[in-house]
Write a structure and sequence with these properties.
The complex is a heterodimer of chains A (568) and B (206). Chain A is mostly helical and 568 residues long. Chain A has a domain of 181 residues. Chain A has 18 helices and 4 strands. In chain A, helix 6 packs across helix 7. The two termini of chain A are 28 Å apart. The relative contact order of chain A is 0.12. Chain B is mainly α. In chain B, the strands form 3 sheets. In chain B, strands 5-7-6 form a 3-stranded antiparallel β-sheet. Chain B has a two-stranded antiparallel sheet with strand order 1-2. In chain B, strands 3-4 form a two-stranded antiparallel sheet. Chain B has 2 domains: 39 residues; 162 residues, no CATH class. Chain B is built from 8 helices and 7 strands, in the order H-H-E-E-E-E-H-H-E-H-H-H-E-E-H. The longest helix of chain B has 34 residues. In chain B, helix 6 crosses helix 7 and helix 7 packs across helix 8. The chains are: A mainly alpha (568), B mainly alpha (206). The interface between A and B is large, with 132 and 103 residues. Chain B: This is Potassium-transporting ATPase KdpC subunit. Chain B: Pfam families: KdpC. Chain B: It is a single-pass membrane protein. Chain B: Belongs to the KdpC family.
């Protein structure tokens, strides 16, 4: 571990803190239809879109109408992506002459991108044409992120409003986030990435004659525009197979730093937007602090782990100063790789700049735990905040049980219906993660896809279903997904998305209808250190109790085996 | 209720697709090629009228007179049977990592073999007491890593200087001039671009 590594982590964290307030203010203005700079320039476009689509932005929806609108929109997304991939061979913009994508892979990819997961069972450069990358995938990167933020805004309205029946208009939220937040930011980010060397071209490859006289075919494409939304929308689906480790996706340490900031920026901003909507920014900072504590612990542990060379190499007499460099890039080194891995799994991004499968066992366990906790540490855009609010409800519920009072959050009573819905969402994820893993490690269709044996093979399976259900998309990428995996991972991604969104919107609907009680001396305050510690504790304990046995079978056993000198 | 939402769902999907899936990437492609044509097309290096590579993408170096890059796990089609794939280091058409786990026996065997090979190829450095930098025997994440650490370059000086009939000091000076420091003093690791270093070596010889 080096001083510059710790400085990188500290400076990164300070930048996130600095971005939180301005972004929170901006997001609130956009989603509440207030005045803002991009609105003055693109306002006519927004109104034109509403006219064509027959949308009345001021006509609000109940929680069930809002949920229905989300689902209908996702149905169209699925049909379009599936069709574009299946018809790839006959569609234009396909200079490489790539054929149709197989049915199970097209299904898996469509679900993966519409749920903001971006699990990739394919290699981008050898499977997808520029048209598929742009019209099928880039579109989903935008709209799945915009839908996530829209849903978070609707849920915030539910927590804030009093005796209300509606929580906003999904169509207006979707259009505003896309037009005013994601697109302008991505235009600037694309130009920055191109300036640093990320390609943006319609050529799909170029042929080179190397210094030693060999032919080298170099894959190219419209990379920068996809890179921008991939990070900002916490999508994570790479243009190339090796994602942000590829020098064309992430050419230097500065682009790497900016990419990490993009992953956290909107998720952090949403905590502040929530505080502003309540009228107490301190409530937002309390959420931010609980998230920040869990983030810093993860980053520290992962950096510590990867700063060691693999102990199995000890007898070879190598200079291991640089740490565990298998599956890492020289320009980033272990500090920026460890930080990136923490950030990408705290949020539901899933982009990688180093191969998580090649981390030392305890290092690889950190991304796994981050995802198991539900990706509520800043989290995916939108999904992080509403996922966190579910844990906040559990925390106040537990606090209420301890002192024998009806639990309240932000002055609203938390009753049986809210807790039932919360538990539905919180229990669905482990069911998918552990259930499918158990199935996959006992049937041949499951085990035949694993690249490793022993505890590492088990972790590979566990990581895949955890990543899918948490809508992350990163992988222990030695796994070669076959149709069994494509189908079950697709189911996992859908359950992970919609069995959180729908209960969370239902909670928002019932919260919106409640009255607000004035705080009394007996009210449990939710903006102080006690609450922060309690909710962080709930997140860790719920995750810890549920997953500890599985972690013991995977990374923990592997760590002990490694120290003992065992290989598989 | 469902029917009244169908029109907005379909129309918004089509409009947002056109905006984010066509107008945005194509507009950015046009703008990028207008403002930064060389970078937008992959930072290609031209020499004697043809493309010799990209300054961002590593190349496979095996000759003793060139600095080696890191091991690469990329694969490519077998020239004798296109349905099979074989090891093809630095195949920039299909980036790939080893994805070997830390307790993989295959990884340990590979690292052991690479260590033995580097020892045999660099007897002078071994005699000077060098320990082989770990990144020279472990494969990169992209399989296309263009860089090595300054130590990994200095380790190879004796071999390269001997193969080229140059003085080691002259080669060391070249490595130092090609070393890039961390951005702002802390972001990233110090590194040397192997292709740029080898090109500079070739120019030195002329």
């Amino acid at each position: 571990m080096s001083l510059s590594g710790w400085i990188t982590i500290a400076v990164f964290f300070l930048c996130v803190v600095a971005l939180t307030r301005p972004l929170g203010g901006f997001l609130k203005r956009v989603l509440e239809g207030e005045r803002h700079l991009p609105g003055r320039m693109l306002g006519p476009l927004e109104r034109g879109i509403y006219r064509l689509a027959g949308v009345e932005p001021t006509r609000e929806q109940s929680w069930s109408q809002y949920a229905l609108a989300v689902i209908l929109f996702k149905v169209f997304c699925f049909i379009a992506v599936y069709a574009l991939l299946r018809l790839q061979g006959v569609l234009p913009f396909n200079p490489g002459g790539l054929g149709a994508v197989a049915p199970d892979l097209a299904y898996n990819t469509a679900i993966s991108f519409l749920t903001n997961t971006n699990w990739q069972s394919y290699s981008g450069e050898t499977t997808l044409s520029p048209l598929s990358q742009m019209l099928a995938l880039t579109v989903q990167n935008f709209v799945s992120a915009a839908a996530g933020i829209a849903i978070a805004a609707a849920i915030m309205r539910g927590f804030v409003r009093r005796s209300a029946t509606t929580i906003g208009n999904f169509w207006a939220d979707l259009v505003r986030v896309t037009l005013y937040v994601l697109l302008p930011a991505c235009v600037l980010l694309t130009l920055f990435f191109v300036l640093e060397g990320v390609p943006q071209t319609l050529w799909s490859s170029v042929s080179a004659f190397t210094l030693e006289g060999r032919h080298q075919t170099i894959a190219l494409g419209p990379v920068a525009s996809q890179e921008a939304i991939k990070m900002l929308g916490t999508n994570g689906g790479g243009f190339f197979n090796t994602n942000s480790a590829h020098p064309f996706e992430n050419p230097n340490a500065l682009t790497n730093f900016v990419q990490m900031l993009c992953i956290f920026a909107l998720g952090a901003g949403l905590t502040n937007m929530f505080g502003r909507m309540i009228g107490q920014e301190k409530q937002g900072w309390a959420i931010f602090s609980a998230m920040a504590a869990l983030f810093l612990i993860g980053a520290g542990v992962l950096y510590w782990s990867e700063a060691h060379a693999n102990p199995l190499f000890a007898s070879l007499g190598l200079d291991g100063t640089l740490g565990n460099m298998e599956g890492k890039e020289t320009r980033f080194g272990v500090a920026a790789s460890a930080l990136f891995a923490t950030v990408t799994t705290d949020a539901s991004c899933g982009a990688v700049n180093a191969m998580h499968e090649s981390f030392l066992p305890l290092g690889g366990m950190v991304p796994l735990i981050n995802m198991m906790l539900g990706e509520v540490i800043f989290g995916g855009v939108g999904s992080g905040l509403y996922g966190f609010l579910l844990f906040a409800l559990i925390a106040v519920f537990m606090a209420g049980l301890m002192v024998g009072r009806t639990p309240e959050y932000l002055g609203k009573k938390i009753e049986a219906r809210e807790i039932k819905m919360t538990m539905l969402a919180v229990l669905c994820l482990p069911l998918v993660m552990l259930g499918f893993t158990a199935l996959a490690v006992v049937i041949p269709a499951g085990t035949s896809a694993l690249s490793a044996t022993g505890p590492h093979g088990f972790t590979e399976a566990l990581y895949a279903y955890t990543s899918a259900a948490a809508n992350n998309g990163s992988a222990f990428a030695g796994l070669t997904a076959n149709s069994f995996w494509n189908v079950t991972l697709g189911i996992g991604m859908m359950i992970g998305r919609f069995f959180v969104i729908i209960p969370a919107l239902a909670i928002a609907g019932s919260m919106a209808a409640k009255k607000v009680a004035a705080p009394t001396p007996g009210t449990f305050p939710t903006d102080n250190g006690l609450f922060i510690a309690l909710v962080a504790g709930v997140i860790v304990i719920v995750g810890g109790l549920t997953f500890l046995p599985a972690l013991a079978l995977g990374p923990i056993v592997e760590h002990l085996a490694m120290l003992h000198g065992t290989t598989y | 209720m469902v029917l009244s939402q169908l029109r907005p769902a379909l129309v918004l999907f089509l409009l947002l697709s056109a905006l984010t899936g066509l107008a945005y990437p194509l507009g950015m492609t046009a703008l990028a090629n207008l403002l930064l044509p060389e970078k937008a097309t992959g930072s290609l290096i031209n020499a004697k009228g043809r493309v010799i590579g990209s300054s961002l993408i590593g190349q496979d170096f095996t000759a003793p007179r060139y600095f080696r890059g890191r091991p690469s796990a990329t694969m490519g089609p077998d020239p004798r049977d296109a349905s099979k794939t074989i090891a093809m280091p630095y195949n920039a058409a299909a980036s790939l990592a080893s994805n070997a786990g830390p307790t993989s026996k295959a990884l340990l065997d590979q690292v052991t073999a690479r260590t033995a090979q580097l020892r045999a190829e660099n007897p002078d450095a071994m005699a000077q007491g060098w320990r082989i930098p770990v990144e020279l025997v472990t494969s990169s994440a992209s399989g296309l890593d263009p860089d090595i650490s300054p130590d990994a370059a200095l380790f190879q000086i004796a071999r390269v200087a001997k193969a080229r009939g140059l003085s080691p000091d002259r080669v060391r000076h070249l490595v130092q001039s090609q070393t890039e420091a961390p951005i702002l003093g802390f972001l990233g690791e110090p590194h040397v671009n192997v292709l740029a270093l080898n090109q500079a070596l070739d120019r030195l010889g002329q």
